[in-house]
Design goal:
- With 368 residues, this protein is an alpha/beta fold.
- It is built from 13 helices and 13 strands.
- It has a seven-stranded mixed sheet with strand order 3-2-1-6-7-12-13, with helices on both faces. Strands 9-10-8-11 form a four-stranded parallel sheet, sandwiched between helices. It has a two-stranded antiparallel ribbon with strand order 4-5.
- Strand 9, helix 7 and strand 10 form a beta-alpha-beta unit.
- Helix 1 runs parallel beside helix 11, helix 5 packs across helix 6 and helix 7 packs across helix 10.
- The protein is elongated and about 70 Å long.
- It binds 6-O-phosphono-beta-D-fructofuranose.
- 6-O-phosphono-beta-D-fructofuranose binds next to loops.
- Keywords: ATP-binding, Cytoplasm, Glycolysis, Kinase, Magnesium, Metal-binding, Nucleotide-binding, Transferase.
- Pathway: Carbohydrate degradation; glycolysis; D-glyceraldehyde 3-phosphate and glycerone phosphate from D-glucose: step 3/4.
- Pfam families: PFK.
C-alpha cells in the first residue's frame, strides 16, 4: 500500500492536530494507505526521526493545541548544523526515498510553503495545507489557526475594557500577526477597540493622541488601542523605505534588534507608543503584550472544521495523484492551487478592505 509522510513546520498553531487527524484518518480509513509523521518539521525529516501515525496515534487529538509531531522553523536549504547553516536538501530527499514515500504533506504558513516548493522542485510529491494565526497566506480565504487566535485576541480586548474603564486609562494591546494586520484588525473590530494600528497603515502618533483626546472631551475617559506587532509609525515607514536600498544592512540591523528584544523581553513599537500617548494626552497609559497566549490551547470550532475539511480534501487529492499544490479554502469549497503561485507572497490587508471601511464607519482611528 502507499506510504505518505506528514510534517508540521513554522510556529505552532491551533488546528494543526485536527489537520493531521483529518489527513491521516482519511488516508488510512478511506484509501488504505499508511502514514508516518516526521518530528519537528524539516529538521526531523533530515535527522530521520519518525513516528507511525496509525489510528491509535490519530485518536483523541482533534481538540489538542500545538502539534503532536513537534515543529521547528528550520529550512531544508539553510539548516543549522554544528553552528553553521547548511543545505541539507539532499539528506531530506534521501530520507523520502528511504521510506518509499509516495507523497509528503507539509502543514505550515508562508515559510513552509516555500520549503515545500523547494522539495517539489527536487522531484518529491509534495502537497501543503495553509496554517497560520497571521492569516497571511495568499490564495486561500483563510488559514487554520486564525479563527482561534482571533477569538483569544478579542477576549483580551474585552477584558482590558474593565481596567481601562475603571481606571480611565489608555490601554495598548500588542497583538501578533507578523507583517500583516489581520489579527489586530479583526480583534480590534470585534472587541470594539478605539484605535487599531496595523502594518498596512503607518500611523501618526499625534493623530492617535488627538482621537483619544476627542473621546476624553466627549466624556470617555479611557481608550483601547489594538496594535499589530508589525505596525510602524509614519517616520519609521519612511526610514524603512529609504533604507530599502541598503536592504541587507537593514536586514542585519533588524535581526540584531530582534535578538536584543528577546534578550531584554522588550516589545517592538508598542512600549514607545504607550509612552508617547501618555506624554501627549496626559492620561495614564499601560501596555499589555498578549504573546504566545494567542497561539496556545484548544482550537475553535471554526478551526477544527476548517482543518478537518482541508485535511480530508488533501487525502482525496493524494489519492488522485495531484501534487505540487496547496489545499486552499474557497467559499464553501476547497481548491488545489499551484504552490508556485503561493510562494514568496504575503496576503496583507488591502486599504479599501471591507473591514477597514466598516471600522472607520464606527469611528475607529487608524492613526492616518
Ligand atoms: O507566524 C506566527 C507568529 O506567531 C507571528 O505572529 C509572530 O510574528 C511569530 O510567529 C513569532 O515567532 P516565534 O514563534 O519564532 O516567536
Amino acid at each position: 500500500s502507499k506510504m505518505i509522510g506528514i510534517l508540521t513546520s513554522g510556529g505552532d498553531s491551533p488546528g494543526l492536530n485536527a489537520a493531521i487527524r483529518g489527513v491521516g484518518k482519511a488516508l488510512l480509513g478511506r484509501y488504505g494507505m499508511k502514514v508516518i509523521g516526521f518530528r519537528d518539521g524539516f529538521r526531523g525529516m533530515m535527522e530521520n526521526r519518525t513516528q507511525l501515525l496509525d489510528s491509535a496515534a490519530l485518536s483523541g487529538i482533534l481538540t489538542l493545541g500545538g502539534t503532536i509531531l513537534g515543529t521547528s522553523r528550520d529550512k531544508p536549504y539553510a539548516m543549522p548544523v554544528a553552528g553553521k547553516l547548511m543545505d541539507m536538501t539532499g539528506v531530506i530527499v534521501e530520507n523520502y526515498r528511504k521510506h518509499h514515500l509516495d507523497a509528503l504533506v507539509c502543514l505550515g504558513g508562508g515559510g513552509t510553503q516555500k520549503n515545500a516548493y523547494h522539495l517539489m522542485k527536487q522531484g518529491l510529491n509534495v502537497i501543503t495545507l495553509p496554517k497560520t494565526i497571521d492569516n497571511d497566506v495568499v490564495l486561500t480565504d483563510v488559514s487554520f489557526g486564525y479563527d482561534t487566535a482571533l477569538g483569544i485576541a478579542t477576549e483580551a480586548v474585552d477584558r482590558l475594557h474593565s481596567t481601562a474603564h475603571s481606571h480611565h486609562r489608555i490601554l495598548v494591546l500588542e497583538l501578533m500577526g507578523n507583517k500583516a494586520g489581520w489579527l489586530a484588525l479583526g480583534a480590534g473590530i470585534a472587541g470594539g477597540a478605539d484605535v487599531i494600528l496595523i502594518p498596512e497603515i503607518p500611523y501618526d502618533v499625534k493623530q492617535v493622541a488627538a482621537a483619544i483626546m476627542r473621546r476624553s472631551h466627549s466624556g470617555q475617559g479611557f481608550s483601547i488601542v489594538a496594535m499589530a506587532e508589525g505596525a510602524v509609525s509614519r517616520e519609521d515607514a519612511a526610514k524603512q523605505a529609504e533604507g530599502g536600498k541598503g536592504k541587507d544592512k537593514k536586514k542585519k540591523e533588524q535581526k540584531q534588534q530582534a535578538l536584543e528584544r528577546i534578550a531584554d523581553s522588550k516589545p517592538g513599537n508598542s512600549l514607545q507608543l504607550a509612552r508617547q500617548l501618555e506624554e501627549l494626552t496626559g492620561l495614564e497609559s499601560r501596555l499589555t503584550i498578549l504573546g504566545y497566549l494567542q497561539r496556545g490551547g484548544t482550537p475553535s470550532a471554526g478551526d477544527r472544521l476548517l482543518a478537518t475539511r482541508l485535511g480530508t480534501a488533501c487525502a482525496d487529492l493524494i489519492n488522485k495523484g495531484e501534487f505540487g499544490v496547496m489545499v486552499a479554502a474557497r467559499g464553501d469549497g476547497v481548491k488545489a492551487v499551484p504552490l508556485k503561485d503561493v510562494v514568496g507572497k504575503r496576503k496583507t490587508v488591502p486599504l479599501d478592505h471591507d473591514w477597514v471601511k466598516s471600522a472607520r464607519s464606527v469611528h475607529t482611528c487608524f492613526g492616518d
